Each structure stands twice: as C-alpha cells, then as structure tokens.
Amino acid sequence: MNGFLHQVIAGIATGGIYASVALALVMIYQATHHVNFAQGEMATFSTYIALTLVQSGMPFWVAFLATVAISFCIGVVIERVLMRPMDKASVLTHVGLFIGLVLVVSNLTGWVFDYTVKPFPTPFYDGPLLGGLVTGHELGSTAVTLVVLGMVFLFFRYTRLGLAMRAAAFNPASARLVGVRVGWMLALGWGLAAAIGAIAGIMVAPVVFLEPNMMLGILLYAFAGALLGGIDNPGGAVIGGFAVGIIENLGGTYIVGTELKLTLALFIIIGVLLVKPAGLFGRVVLSRV
Amino acid sequence: MLNRRTLLAAGAAALAGPLAAPRIGQAADLTGVTADEIKIGSIFPYSGPASAYGVIGRLQQVFFKAINDAGGFQGRKLNYITYDDGYQPPKAVEQARRLVDQDKVSFLFNTLGTPSNTAIQRYMNQRKVPHLFLATGADKWANPREYPWTIGYQPSYRTEAQIFAKFMLEADRNAKLGILYQNDDFGKDYIAGVRDVLGPRFDTLVKTASYEVTDATIDSQVVQLQSLGCNALLTAATPKFAAQTIRKVFDIGWRPKQHFLTDVSISVGAVMNPAGPEKGVGIITAQYLKEPTDPTWQADPGMNEWRAWMQRHMPDADQTDGNFVYSYGVAKCMMQVLTQCNGDFSRENIMKQATSLNGVVIPSLINGITVGTSASNYHPIRTMQLAKWDGKTWERFGGLIQGAG
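^ inputs. structure came back:
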C-alpha cells in the first residue's frame, strides 16, 4: 500500500508540472482561440534567459520577474511580427506557422545555449520532506502554480481588460464594434501566455533539468490535462493537469505498464474529445449569429 | 544453399558485372585506392543535438593530415573525407551514398551514432563497403552472419551489462536487481546483457521498468522498483534521466546495496554534478578508456604519447575532453588494420584484416585491455574495469572483467 500512496504523491508532483504548462495553454487559447504548439519551446527559451540572469549574479526572484517581463515582450513581438500578417489566413496556415515556430525556437535555443544538460537552481528548500515523499521544491512550485491560477482567474473574471480579451478572441467583429482594440488584445494574450510559460519553465527546470527539448513530452501531457479539465477554464486545466499526473502513474504501474504511459495520455485526449469535448469543467458555448 | 536471396544477389552481380570498372581482373575491389592515395570516408554530427561528439571527427582530420605531412602511409596519402549528418539518420544515408558513390571512398570509418549507423548499415553491406569501428555502443553491430561488412569498436552496452551482472552476483548472491531502462535499442541491450549472465534466473531475480524519452520524469518508475523490493539497481538512461534517477533514489531514501550506471551517463559535468555529487556516492560504472583527468595516468606512457600528440597538433583543444582520447585510440586502431593489410588495400582484405586483430595494444585503453577480433568475433573490446563514484571523481577498483559474449 505504501507503494500505492507513493505513486499517487509522485503523480501529484509530476501533475504539478503539467498543470503549470496547461495554464499557459489555457491563457493562449482564451486570448486567441488558438493552441500554440511552440508554447513549450518558448518557455524553455525563457528558462535559459532566467538561468543566464541568475548566473550573472542576480538574486533569484529579481531574475524571475525580469524573465517574466522579457518573455512577455518576446510574446508580443512574435504576435506583431509573425502572427499579425497571417491574421486573415486559414487555420492550417496558423498550424504551419506554429510548427515552424517550434523548429526555429528549439534550434535557436540549442544554438545559443548549447545542448548539454544543465542544473537549474530552486528558490525553495532543496531537499526531501515527509520522509522523501515530496521535495521542498515540489511543494513550492505547486504553490506558485496555484497563485498564478488565482491571478489568471481574477484577471479574466473581474478586470475590464480580461473581459475585452475574451471578447476579442471569441467574436472579433462584435468586439471591434464596441471599441475593443482587437489587434492589441491578441498581442497582449501572446505576451501573457509567454509570461506564464516562462513561470512554468522556471518551476519545471529544477525537477527535470534544463535542456533544449525539456518541454517536448511535457507539452503533450499538459495538453491532455488542459483538455481533460476544459481548455477555456484555468481551474479545470490545473485540476486536469494533476489528474493526468496521477492517472499516468497509477495506470503505468498497475494497469497498462510503463511502456504505454504516453499512450494513456493520448487516450485521454481522444476520450475527452469524443465524450465531452468541452472538458470536465468547461462550459459548452453556444454561438448565436 | 540456393534460395531467393542468393539467386537475386547472383542475378544482380551478373547484371552489375559488366558495368563495374573493368580495370581489375577478378573479385578484388580496389575502389578508392590508387598508387598514391587511399580514400577514407566518415560521418559525424558536427552540428545539431549531438554536436559535442564532433570533436572526434575534428581530431581524425588532424590525425590523417599529420600522417600525410610526414610523408604519408607506405607512400600513399590518406585522403580523409568527412561529412556532417547533424545526427539525423536520413542525412546520414545521403552522406553515406555521397561518400560511396561520388567520392568513391575505400571504406567508412568510425561513423557516429546508433540511429545514423542503423540507417546506413544495409546499404553498406549491399555495396560490400567496409563499415569499420562504428562510434556507438549498440550490440547489434556484432552480427557477422547478416552484416559481415559492419563492425563496432567500443564495448557494447550488452557487454557492459554482462560485466555488471557478473560483479553483482559475486558481491551478493541474494541480489534482487531492478533495471530502469530507456525503451529503445540502447536500453534493451542492458536487459539482454543481464539475461545473458542470469539465464533462467532472470525472471525471479530481476524487475524492470521502462521510460520513454518523452516522459517528463522517471519518478514513478523509481518508486515502482523500490516498492517491488529491489536491493540493487541498474540505470540504463541517457544523461538527463540518469541525473533525475540519482536524485530521486537519494531523495526517497532508497539505498540500493549496488547501483550500476551506464557509461553513457557518467559525465561529471552533465550528470553527477547536476544530480548533486553527494547523492551519487557509491554508484558503480564500467570503463575501458583512460580518463584524461585521472591523476593515475599522469606518468602513463600511453597517455604521455597522447598528450604529446595533442600538444604538437591540437594545442588549443580541451585536454580534459575524453572524446579526444577516444578518437586518438580508434584512429590508432585503424592504422593497425592498414598496416596489417601489407600493401593489399582491396575492400575484401581491409575487412579481413579488421576482423583479424590479435591483442592490439592501444595507448588510450586502460592497461591490460586490448583489441581482438576474428571472423566470428565482431566485438573488438570486451573487457572493462569497474569504477566507483566517490563524490568527486570515478575511482577504478578491482581487476579487469570480461563480458560473457
């Protein structure tokens, strides 16, 4: 039974990683109604920026805030330079662009920061707690994820800007008619998503170690988590992320075996899309024209 | 025996016969060899994710040039042509075809990477071009029946696993081994090696857990092996996952009596330090090369030879990088083959000499380890020495151990 409990807790810890990345996916989806495949690679790039700042002698939390700000700017620039000209293009064009972005950012990261595995410092207690069940960093990063979740929730629910952003993504024409600057809302959405991605990267890197492909697998599980919880619902996505972590561990250990863990994530994606496309906590949106 | 394959091959040979260069009367294939040069081809990842290994090719460029500058080899220049595949198998195929079909090299030497070599192995054997001393530890290169033109160099992962298993049984008859392995050729070689030694007892003594390279963490697998009651652990993982494993094993308070680690992941900078050097104390690995930072080799004649060569020909290179030691050694081994050829540089004879090495001493191999091959033995190096992590460096201990295969 000890093994079972241990698997659940290890699952929650891994789920926390998925949850933080799932939040960034929700952010970009809420703001643009697209899912950015390059979200993970952009987050990895931001994490390298953070590492460079920390190594240059900056205190951790200052580097953290600076990285978030820089990432926000990178996100805005990418939207302005790459996405804006594709404004009227079809969905397939966007998908192509996202895939291109994955390759460009990932190779750029390797080229600038090289491919060797690097350790990343944690601002929290760096050691095991509760007899090795969790580490200080896992608790701390879960707390950070929850704080970010709270901020995202409050932003979309209670601020005019959040409302305007949702409107711009949901119905650009009507939003424009009531005076929302749709173009800038999209850019803002990209910036915020990149910023949240940077936070996720900084929280993930101490656990999985930093290298250019750090987010490759994580993004897939995060995507499963976001879909499971509902891709338009920040809280749902976080719960979904944790759930995928636990399901993956228990399924891998007791049901399908470790070889089919990844398949399990894909099953979750397909299952949710078939049975409840809006996700467990997502709202079914009716669009009236 | 006459079957469809031999029939096809005979047909193809009959068709190709008249087209092939008529200058040689019969079988001896002297492509790439003239009165004043021998063309050697190689492929390395000079760019891309594995570009750290590019230095192996860089040293070899200098190595063959140095021989040419000193007057060449038995009156011939060694024309070393090397291309970049970026560690991508499709690119490797393209470059291998370029080397064989356009540049018309005599043979390929030390091509790097399991995926890249897997991609070109069939082609090389179909064209009957020697595919020598591959820079990969996969065991499958030792398959003379199906692929007589391909031979590896360093001890295979399977050999390493055999050595681990032998040592484990000697140290502890009641060991219960957990194997954490990457779910591909690399990881599965370790399962095969342990099975070679344990035989029918494998199923009762060993528990396995695999991970995919796309997994975020290996926490679940480590926890699983611990709760199954394993008291020894073999980690067959690439550097990132190896570092995660070392840390997780320590953090959950699991103290396996023996923890074996693949020599793929023993880098101090990329694995042991990121994991936390104190967390890996006692971990055991196997070595066959002299480690350039190991003070034991300070006055070693073999390493002195290497250091002198480096100082003379590559004074700016980083002498703590073990890849240079590796590259120099395998190039020396190649020269031994060419010397043994005794003036007959046909592809058949080069392959024959590469598989007739007997107790060849290479300056960069741990003293006592030699290179030996035969028509049925395509494992040039089969002996290794164990080393233990003491928190700062890998300390070798015990005698040389030979793999079972």
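The CA atoms of residues 85 and 282 of chain A lie 31 Å apart. Chain A has a mean pLDDT of 88.
thumbs up if we can close this ticket
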